[in-house]
Amino acid sequence: MKVAVIGAGSWGTAVAALAAQNVETTLWARSEELSAAMTRDSRNNSYLPGIDLPEMTYTADLEEACNAADIVAIGVPSHGFRAVLESAARSIDSGATVISLVKGVEQGTLLRMTQIAHEVLSTSDHSHDHRHDRSHDRSHDLTAIGVLTGPNLAREVAEGQPAASVVAIPDGGRAEQVQAAFMSPTFRVYTNPDVVGCEIAGALKNVMAIAAGVAHGLGYGDNTIAALITRGLAELARLGIALGGSPLTFSGLAGMGDLVATCISDKSRNRTVGVELGRGRSLEDVVNEMHMVAEGVKTTRAVLDLAALHSLEMPIAEQVGAVLYDGRRPDEIVPTLMMRGATSEMHGLG
User: Fold this and answer.
1) Which CATH class is domain 196-338?
2) Which of 44, 120, 133, 202 could form a disulfide with 13 if both were Cys (CB 3.0 to 4.6 A apart)?
3) If we measure between CA atoms, which residue out of 209, 195, 232, 236 comes closest to residue 295?
């Protein structure tokens, strides 16, 4: 078996390191300089400094990375996901399993990453697939596209700290194949057929992490954060169920697990953005000095658009959007949420 991981940021590198313990693995970096440095040092000092990586192949050539791969895992920022996959599509075997490592929603189209993969791979002719007649366009097996998600802070996973994740993919056999490829003594992978719920939970928890960070930056304590996380979970479930997700998903690793980790950890990029906003810094300054992408900054708008399409109340997400896009002061978030009309805890969960 061969695994290709597309994207050599912190999470892509950590995932490639997991796979390399089990199977032949190639990690693609956009930068030739980074690829060469990883080949030389067996480290990714740009994104995971100080972490020794297991033996694998590093390349800046997408075709080389994807050629003959049984599993292609894509870990680039959501705003670049479509373009990278379009470039890679002709090199991805039509029988390969394609896994998103990305927690976001595409701006404008409001598509999840697996939906983008469906679009791109359904229109590709897979001209590098040697096992089929090349004279006709062939659709990729759409049950072979899924997501790996959970409470997975990249550095902790790369350090070998015990962690768990979920692979969601419609084809149970392929889910088990991915499970086996990424399982390790310190990284436990569960399967879940609910692709929609897992993806929506992963995208929306970043929005909630910004809110939790703002509360922390403003000096609020653990009671406030606990309330935000719990009501944030209600918003995850509300949107995810409306889009077809399973309610059980949101109490699992992709939902509650990832939400807790992202809202409380100082390693969370989205929480960090919120903390700095709460301390009075401008969004532009905070984002400009970050080395990595905080997906929630862009995802919030898409989440709010999805909520509007389904006529859903998303009060926490709405307040985050008001701060990010409309100039609302961060210190107005919590009072606004606290003064909303009284309602039942079960409101909107049915």
Assistant:
1) mainly alpha
2) 44
3) 209
